[in-house]
């Protein structure tokens, strides 16, 4: 058994590429257009393990995606969680769960896909009950 990818549907491919690549540092491995199916698939990977991919599915005919409560988040380990969150915030991304503990933060993609950021080397134990939500601008 080999893990391949997690697929998320995105409504604005450019905005999602900016978030996942410029914001989080993922790299495009490949993409394929399916004009007959009116969709595009873009496979992104992290530099350290590019084979574990995020598959962005962009349906050319826009639709609102609802439900999916069973989906939790995508998780990435970062070198410096404060610097990563500051970079994302400078790009206009809301830091939904700031890295007050220096260990864990949560942000959301343009489509509301939850993304967990974990400081490399930090404990992966579940976080204590979340501190109040909201982006105070400082942590
Ligand atoms: C190539 C492989 O990695 C795929 O995931 S293709 C799976 C296929 N995707 C699509 O048809 C994309 C367009 C479609 N309108 C959609 O939004 O899924 C597929 O079977 N998708 C169905 C699914 O539930 O994933
Ligand atoms: Ni797939």
From TrEMBL:
Record-level Gene Ontology MF annotations: lactoylglutathione lyase activity
Q: Which InterPro entries match?
A: Glyas_Bleomycin-R_OHBP_Dase, Glyas_Fos-R_dOase_dom, VOC_core
Biological process (GO), any one: methylglyoxal catabolic process to D-lactate via S-lactoyl-glutathione
Domain VOC, first and last residues per copy: 2-120
Q: Name one Pfam family in it.
A: Glyoxalase
What PANTHER family does the entry give? Answer: LACTOYLGLUTATHIONE LYASE (PTHR46036)
Under what name is this protein listed? Aldoketomutase
